Amino acid sequence: MDYFSLNKKAPNTSFKDAVIRGLAPDKGLYFPEHIEALPKSFFENIDHLSHTEIAFQAIKQFVIPDISEDVLKDIIEDTLCFDFPIVELDKNISTLELFHGPTMAFKDVGARFMARCLAHFNTNNTNEVTVLVATSGDTGGAVANGFLGIKGVNVVILYPSGKVSEIQEKQLTTLGQNITALEIDGVFDDCQDMVKRAFLDDDLTSKMQLTSANSINVARWLPQLFYFMFAYRQLHKKYDDIVFSIPSGNFGNICAGMMAQQLGLPIKHFVAANNANNVVTEYLNTETYNPKPSVQTISNAMDVGNPSNFIRIQEIYKNNFSTLKENLSSYSFTDQQTRAALKDIYKTYNYIADPHGAVGYLGCKSHLKNHPNSHCVFLETAHPTKFLDVVEEVIETKVSLPPQIEAVMDKVKVATSISTYADLKAFLIQKNKA
Ligand SMILES: *Cc1c(COP(=O)(O)O)cnc(C)c1O
Q1: What is the pLDDT of residues 288-339, one digit of tens each?
Q2: Ligand 1 centroid vs 246 CA: distance in angstroms?
Q3: Which of 152, 223, 321, 346 has the most CB atoms at less than 10 Å from its CB?
Q4: pLDDT digits (tens, 9 = 90+) for 159-192
Q5: How far is CA 15 from CA 10, 30, 67, 118, 390, in A?
């Protein structure tokens, strides 16, 4: 499968090259040249297939021949080593729990898949790849954990000092081995700016192979389409009109759901559930796309002012506004509404959501007002204890830590403090020589 750049000013390339580069040379996002739908029988018989069989059939066209069938099967098996349970709250609403991985964030799947692809591409190669990633919280932990111990890959994570939760900080600073944490004297945008500058620094990129591990990378983005198939497998016999509500920030997860739809998954509609960062909600209302600086909310993994994957969504629906609107609605919710939703979910269903899931739940509620016969699945993208302060305060109950989280809390933080781009560059060059 070839990939092309959505900026259309770079040559087409292979899966392997797209994964190693992250972004195309013209700074565009890569997109597959062609999408071949799976046969109808695949979806009719999906409940007889295992998660790994579903995942293999769904992603193979995007990966083979750069990775052989056998190796791809191993990578998938290794990636999907945990559960993806559906919890039905009532006849109209379910939640798909995506937080049973090692760092209890849905990003575990993409991070693990990408790490194993990069490791495979590097088997016969002594050229090390450096994965540079800025995080506002969950990405860092998932990437650190997913890439831990992967040969030939160094991971450097930039996080804003004092701006991530204690649990999140422990998850990205306590692993050691090939993972380095840089504690930045600044906010998330400063981390992101430094990473972007590094990718554009020819002097640096001539000395080392840098790549990104956020959802612009096709190997982190595409495996997220599995979730939608797993949910469908569990619910399709019971409900005719299944709709997904996805708490969205960079729109990678929802865009992967739309790829599943392109593969033939019988889903007619998606709901993008947003916090106060409402660029897409506004776009669907006004047809004007107006990126703005992000504002801080209690669902901070979605505090994105200019969602990087929205351009892929435009491509999927052929840049046609009315087709887009048929397939996508978007709603934006305040922190106050999110808190009320957390409480409502707890009181009504005795279920503890996290703030991101609560925004997804609100998306379902909005959709169901006009489509009372739909069954809406909201994605639970993180475990509630990762946002302990807010959750405990709102539901007025103590929540106990799961073992994955408990295990990192006793470990010792190791991070290097830096404050400027010059510091980062010096650090990378020094590390590359070592
Ligand atoms: C990253 C993240 C999101 C947003 O996902 P996108 O693919 O960027 O839209 C939502 N919830 C949580 C907990 C996350 O970590």
Answers
A1: 999 998 888 999 889 888 899 999 999 999 999 999 999 999 999 999 999 9
A2: 9
A3: 223
A4: 999 888 888 899 999 999 999 999 999 888 788 8
A5: 15, 9, 9, 11, 41
The ligand 1 atom at the shortest distance from the C-alpha of residue 251 is 9
3-state DSSP call for residue 363?
A: helix
Q: Which residue type, as a one-letter code, is found at position 317?
A: Y
Test site for ligand 1: of 95, 96, 106, 192, most ligand atoms within 8 A of the Cβ: 106
User: Does residue 124 register a pLDDT over 80?
Assistant: no
**Lookup result for tokens 């047809």:** 287
The yes-or-no verdict on residue 212 having pLDDT over 90 is no
> Is the pLDDT reported for residue 127 higher than 80?
no
Between CA 245 and CA 67 the distance in angstroms is 33
Of 331, 139, 387, give the one whose Cα is nearest residue 253.
139
Phi, psi of 3 (to 5 degrees): -120, 145
Active-site annotation, residues? 107
For the CA of 142, the closest atom of ligand 1 is 15
Q: How many CB atoms lie within 10 A of CB 158?
A: 26
Task: Measure the CA–CA gap between 211 and 214, rounded to whole angstroms.
Answer: 10
Residue 383 is classified by DSSP as: -
- Domains, the chain, with CATH or none: 84-105+223-401 (3.40.50.1100)
Sheet strands side by side (includes 93-97): 86-88, 93-97, 375-380, 242-247, 270-274, 328-332
pTM score of the predicted model:
0.95
Among 214, 250, 251, 342, say which to mutate for ligand 1: greatest number of ligand atoms within 8 Å of CB.
250
Does residue 221 have a pLDDT over 80? yes
Tell me how far the alpha carbon of residue 235 lies from the centroid of ligand 1, in angstroms: 23
What is the tens place of the pLDDT at every residue in 397-423?
Answer: 999 888 888 888 889 999 999 999 999
Instruction: Judge if the beta carbon of residue 277 lies within 6 A of ligand 1.
Output: no
Map residue 285 onto helix, strand or coil: helix
Cα–Cα distance, 377 to 389 (Å, whole number)? 26
pLDDT of 407 reads 87
- Find the 364 Cα to ligand 1 centroid distance in Å: 17
Give the position of tokens 């290097």: 416
Distance 12 CA to ligand 1 centre (A): 29
56-82: per-residue pLDDT in tens? 999 999 999 999 999 999 999 999 999
Cβ pair 108, 101 in contact under 8 A: yes
